[in-house]
Amino acid sequence: MYMAMRAGVGIGGHAHSDALSLILYAGGRELLADSGMGLFEWNKERKYAVSTRAHNTVVVDGQDQHVRGLHWNTPQTVACKIWDARHGKDYDYCFASHYGYTRYDDPVIHSRKVVFVKNRYWLIVDLFEAQEQHTYEQYFHLPIGDAVVQWDRGQVHTNHNDSNVLLLFPEQEQAEDQLTLESGLDFRQGQYYVNPVAKRSMSTAGRAVYETLVVPYGTVQPQIRISRMPVTLEGRELPALEATALRISGDNWSDEICLYHNSVDVNSYLDHTGNIVSQELLPGKSVLAGLEFAGGRHSDDVVVNHSVRQN
Questions:
Q1: Which of 7, 44, 49, 261 is most exposed, with minimal Cβ within 10 Å?
Q2: DSSP bridge partners of 92
Q3: Res 70: pLDDT
């Protein structure tokens, strides 16, 4: 199982609008795929290939993360900040933000947190900081072949005869979201192919949170259960906008995960003029006191109670 997330700056015509985009690989197959470079022709296929919606990330208000000029004479891509990256025995964790949508009159900051519970699944949490109402469209590009949407259960899975992926979307508290399946383009070895793309959309004002569970599997679809858990800070129960607290269970195992969302002020990365603040002027992470979750008291903003499968 392998994951990569883009959180850096690209320059020139080779750069795509792909900040915080993921690729995932497991079981001998790329399960969340990058759409590829495309042919170097400034046609509709190439324009799609470099766009934000051609990547496994989020489009805000229908616009790309950065505005291209001429095809090969275009400004560098959006500013990104990696806030945290951890690598452990049971799980890996990364947390980054990008600032492409701060060009809006009402700025939007997109942050993404990913927990990889090893040999099991990825939990992806997308956070959006804004004041007014915006439309968020989250894209997941699936392998070439069949995909199935189970509308009533809010999930999507592929339908191959070897390795597959299951996407589960917990219900959100702040707004009703819509799940659709559309066609994308996957460029491989000089050719464009049509592939299925899962798109999740919602419109809401203020802070917003998207949570997605990505589970790779072989031929038998696993039965996964997701439920929200209570979490309190200094005696105050936290809503999902402040902390993602989930119990994720399968056959003979159950994990408890809490991600606290207010430990870093992502707005602090840019100053009032829109320029990047020097590292020494950035505020540090807030020190937690009294975060209570799953029967324990914690001072960390990431809590993963990982259970070992019981036979």
A1: 44
A2: 87, 116
A3: 64
66 close to 100: Cβ distance less than 8 angstroms: yes
Which regions of the chain are under pLDDT 50?
none
Lookup: tokens for 281: 């002027």
pTM metric for this prediction: 0.94
